[in-house]
C-alpha cells in the first residue's frame, strides 16, 4: 500500500494488517505456525524481522502483497519526488489493451517502425542499470504506448512481425523489472505477462529467455518462490536445446535464469536447489570467461559471486557474507554494485559491524541515490543501525540519522 508510512518497521506493518483483518496475535501466529510470543516480539521489534519466506507466508495469510509488509517505495529523483507510476499503470491497464479487434488502430494511423524504437528502449535500459529509475519510470508510459502500436503494426506488416513483437517484449520486460525494483509488484506481474506474450509472438528464443527474467523478477517481488523456480527451470530446459553452444548472449541469458531461480530457492529456504543452480550458472560464467553485459544481464563470474552472497544472506548464513562480501564491484553496472553493497551492509549490521555497514550504505547512496532510497532493506538496516548506536550526537550519529530521514526510515 503506497503511502502507508515508510517509517513503519516490518513488525509495525504486520501489526497494522493483522488488526485490519481482525486477527489476534494468537490467531495469526497459529496460522503461520509460530508462537504468540514470537509474533508479539516481531511486532514490537524485540527480535529481528522474519525471514523473507516467512514474510511471504504472513502476506498470504493477511491477504496483502508481500511489498506491503516489507515496505513500499517512494520514487525519488535527486532531491525532489517524481512519481509517474500512475501513468505507467494507466498505460498498462488501458482498455485498448484488451482487444485488438475491438480497439484496432484507425486505418490512417501512423504506426511506428521497430528500428528507431530499439535504440530508445536500450537507452532506458542503460538508465536502469546506472540507477536512474526516475528517468525510466518517466519514459515508460510513452514507451508502452509505442509498444502497443508496434503490436498493431505486426498485424499489418508480416515482414516486420518478428521485430515488432521483439521490441514490445523488450519494453514490457523493462517495465516489469523496474516496477518490481520500486515495489509495484502487482503491475510488475502484468508487465511481465505482456512481455512473455510478446516474446512468444516474436518466435525468438533469446527474446523469450530475456522476457522470462522479467517473470522471475515479478514472481520474486510477489513472494511466489515456487513459481519463480518453476519458471526458471522450464525456461532453462526449453532454451538449452535451442541455442548455439558458444553464443555469449545465450550463455548469459541462460546463466541469469539460473541465478534468478537460485535466489527464489534461497528465499524458499531450499539450500540444495539454490546451490545446484548457482553451480550451473558458475559453469556457464566460466565458459563465457569474463564479466559481460549481453542483453543487460551483467552476467559473468562476478555476478555469480554476487548472487551466491545474496542467496547466503537469504539463507541466514551471515558469517559467510561478512567474510566474503568485501569484493570489487566498481567495474559492474551500478545497479548490480549497489544491490550488492546493500546486501553486504545488511550482513554487516546483523554481525554488529555498524561502522562498516554504514560506510557501505554511504558508498551505495553516492553511486545511486534512487536505488538506495527506494530499497526497503536499506530502511530496515538503518533502523537497526540506529538501535545499535542511538543518535546521541557526533558526526557519525548525525550522518546516520540524516540518511535515515532521506530514506524515510524514520520520521
Q: What features would you describe in this structure?
A:
- Among the domains are: 1-72, Orthogonal Bundle (434 Repressor (Amino-terminal Domain)), CATH 1.10.260; 333-411.
- The chain contains 21 helices and 2 strands.
- A hairpin with a 2-residue loop joins strand 1 and strand 2.
- The protein is mainly α.
- The protein has a two-stranded antiparallel sheet with strand order 1-2.
Defining traits:
Lambda_DNA-bd_dom_sf; DNA binding; 411 residues; 21 helices; 434 Repressor (Amino-terminal Domain); Cro/C1-type_HTH
Question: How much helical structure, as a percent, in the residues?
Answer: 55-70%
Walk across the major sheet and give the strand order. Answer: 1-2
What is the alpha-carbon Rg in Å? 22 Å
Number of helices: 21
Which stretches are poorly predicted, pLDDT < 50 over at least 5 residues?
76-80
Kindly state the number of beta strands: 2
SS-based class: mainly alpha
Largest sheet: 2 strands, antiparallel
Our measurement of the CA-to-CA distance between the termini, rounded to an integer number of angstroms, reads 18 Å
* Inertia-based shape: globular
Q: Element order, helices and strands?
A: HHHHHEEHHHHHHHHHHHHHHHH
Mean pLDDT: 89
Give me the oligomer status: single chain
- Proportion in β-strands: under 5%
Pfam family, one: HTH_31
GO molecular function, one term: DNA binding
Protein name: Transcriptional regulator
GO cellular component, one term: cytosol
Amino acid at each position: 500500500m503506497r503511502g502507508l508510512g515508510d517509517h513503519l518497521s516490518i513488525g509495525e506493518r504486520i501489526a497494522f494488517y493483522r488488526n485490519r483483518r481482525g486477527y489476534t496475535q494468537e490467531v495469526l501466529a497459529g496460522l503461520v505456525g509460530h508462537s504468540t510470543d514470537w509474533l508479539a516480539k516481531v511486532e514490537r521489534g524485540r527480535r529481528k524481522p522474519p525471514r523473507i519466506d516467512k514474510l511471504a507466508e504472513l502476506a498470504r495469510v493477511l491477504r496483502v502483497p508481500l511489498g506491503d509488509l516489507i515496505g513500499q517505495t517512494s520514487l525519488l529523483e535527486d532531491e525532489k519526488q517524481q512519481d509517474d507510476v500512475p501513468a505507467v499503470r494507466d498505460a498498462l491497464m488501458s482498455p485498448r489493451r484488451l482487444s485488438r479487434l475491438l480497439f484496432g488502430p484507425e486505418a490512417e494511423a501512423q504506426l511506428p517502425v521497430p528500428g528507431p524504437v530499439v535504440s530508445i528502449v536500450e537507452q532506458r535500459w542503460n538508465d536502469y542499470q546506472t540507477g536512474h529509475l526516475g528517468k525510466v519510470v518517466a519514459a515508460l508510459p510513452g514507451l508502452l504506448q509505442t509498444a502497443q502500436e508496434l503490436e498493431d503494426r505486426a498485424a499489418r506488416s508480416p515482414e516486420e512481425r518478428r521485430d515488432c513483437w521483439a521490441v514490445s517484449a523488450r519494453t514490457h520486460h523493462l517495465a516489469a523489472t523496474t516496477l518490481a525494483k520500486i515495489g509495484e509488484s502487482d503491475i510488475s506481474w502484468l508487465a511481465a505477462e505482456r512481455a512473455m506474450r510478446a516474446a512468444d509472438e516474436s518466435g525468438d528464443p533469446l527474446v523469450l529467455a530475456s522476457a522470462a527474467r522479467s517473470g522471475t523478477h515479478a514472481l520474486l517481488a510477489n513472494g511466489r518462490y515456487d513459481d519463480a523456480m518453476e519458471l526458471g527451470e522450464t525456461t532453462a530446459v526449453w532454451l538449452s536445446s535451442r541455442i548455439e553452444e558458444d553464443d555469449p548472449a545465450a550463455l548469459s541469458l541462460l546463466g541469469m535464469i539460473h541465478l534468478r531461480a537460485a535466489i527464489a530457492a534461497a528465499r524458499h529456504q531450499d539450500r540444495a536447489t539454490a546451490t545446484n543452480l548457482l553451480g550451473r550458472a558458475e559453469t556457464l560464467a566460466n565458459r563465457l570467461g569474463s564479466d559481460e553485459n549481453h542483453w543487460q544481464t551483467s552476467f559473468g563470474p562476478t555476478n555469480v559471486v554476487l548472487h551466491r552472497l545474496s542467496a547466503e544472506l537469504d539463507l541466514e548464513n551471515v558469517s559467510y557474507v561478512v567474510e566474503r562480501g568485501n569484493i570489487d564491484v566498481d567495474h559492474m553496472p551500478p545497479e548490480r554494485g549497489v544491490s550488492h553493497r546493500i546486501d553486504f551492509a545488511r550482513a554487516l549490521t546483523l554481525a554488529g559491524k555498524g561502522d562498516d555497514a554504514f560506510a557501505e550504505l554511504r558508498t551505495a547512496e553516492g553511486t545511486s541515490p534512487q536505488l538506495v532510497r527506494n530499497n526497503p532493506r536499506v530502511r530496515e538496516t538503518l533502523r537497526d543501525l540506529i538501535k545499535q548506536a542511538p543518535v546521541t550526537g557526533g558526526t557519525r550519529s548525525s550522518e546516520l540519522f540524516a540518511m535515515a530521514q532521506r530514506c524515510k526510515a524514520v520520521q
